[in-house]
Description:
alpha/beta
Amino acid sequence: MSEAAAQTTSDATTYRRLLGLLRPYKVVVGATLLAMVMDSLCMTLFARTIKPMMDRLFTVRDPHVIFWMPIIIIGIFFVRSIAVYIETYGAAYVGRGVVQDMRRRIFDKYLHMPASFFDRESSGQQISRITYTSEQVAQATTDSAKTAIVDGLMVVGLVAVMLWTSWELSLALLVMVPMIGLLVTYVGRRYRRINVTIQDVVGRVTGVVEEVVGAHREVKVFGGQDYESARFNDVTDRTRKLNVKVAATNGLSTAFVQLAAAIALALIVFFATRPFMLKGDFTAGSFATIFMCMGGILPSLKRLTTVQSNIQRGLAAAHELFDIIDTPAERDEGTIVIERCRGDIEFRDVHLVYAGSERAALQGVSLHCPPGSVTALVGRSGSGKSSMASLIPRFYEPTAGMLLLDGKPLDDYALRNLRAQIAWVGQDVVLFDDTIARNIAYGALANAGEADIVAAAEAANAMEFIRGLPNGIHSRVGEDGALLSGGQRQRIAVARALLKNAPILVLDEATSALDTESERLIQDALTRLMKNRTRLVIAHRVSTVAHAD
């Protein structure tokens, strides 16, 4: 199969999947399609009235036609107005619904993707799929489909009226067919190439903006404004050039269609004035009908050729989104569900090689952490400490070897249940733009009572600063905890772990970036947190893990 044929087959498959997204809206889709048919039919009927209107209204002045023709015209356009409203509203309703459904599916997919997926792709690209790429899908499913259906039926209807009026003159339309056929083929291939690239470039634009906004302090301190400005200009310039190419292709197709239509129109005028056409029942009304139909066909053909841009952009977006949807989520084949594990952790000859890396992060690690013990992992950066800890909640899968919990392989546990047994306090605390209370009682802890939240904050030495806030535990923390200091964020993370009360606790450099006073408060809170749990403590310095077993 040729590359072009394979691409056409792929596009057809993608479009069928897109149409599958319309099933929940089949009633609205049916009403919208009916309105589109009525819209085109009304214009066809209006074109059909031109001949009797010209011949019997102005030439013969038939009183019957004089009375009824205004009523007929008002009736046609009244029905068309209703049809246009229904098709516009229906297309928007279905299109917005499809975009929302696609965004929800992509977001839900992100929530269940393995950590390796987020390692190999920029967050800007991931955000762009939900904000920009999903929006393009509406172009392929509704907006462009509306244009294709309405204008396609309009062309068919007007051509039928022309053939009914004078099939001899209408043969001039044959001049347009091969010209427009060649144009559609060329334009379709060009749009496909350009729009696939646009999806990638827009993701890069989002990524650059997100990096600069998140690292604005570093950009200012290290004088990176000029560099970042040049980088942003380079990416946006590529986007501009690609969009200009799309506009140029649209302009080329419009000009080409106009030229083809002008040639056909000139032929109609030429043949309409020949002596053999002036005989018989060919009247001024016949010529006006054909002329008006050609005038109506021209804008429809222009929209039909340029609509390919939106369809190809939507298909390119859908290809990308369906690739993500089809990507395997985290493996979760375990069936064991327990209330609370004992916390017996064992590494058996564990190896780990990250995807895309030639160097092993872990090689032949064997380790036993008895229930209730404190195991310290001490070493330089990059020695594999965090990699070991990340295997316990199955953020990554070992390349070889096995991990066991209470004597059973981790794979045998249902993934959600396994992670329910683990609390995690890291150096890079993640807080959500919400209240302190909701950050402590996050996720599965959301039903915790206020008294339990306050008790956890008290045990974490967090109430010391929370009491001084205007709304106490109901004060907002800002994006990523921007309204709090590093030590305050760390204590909220400890309070979250205390509230979870999990039998396994992982402390990943939990105090390495804190000042002496904050570290003292955190260590005091961790002492309470670490009781009666299996603890895995990651540190650079041996002094911080002197209490380890």
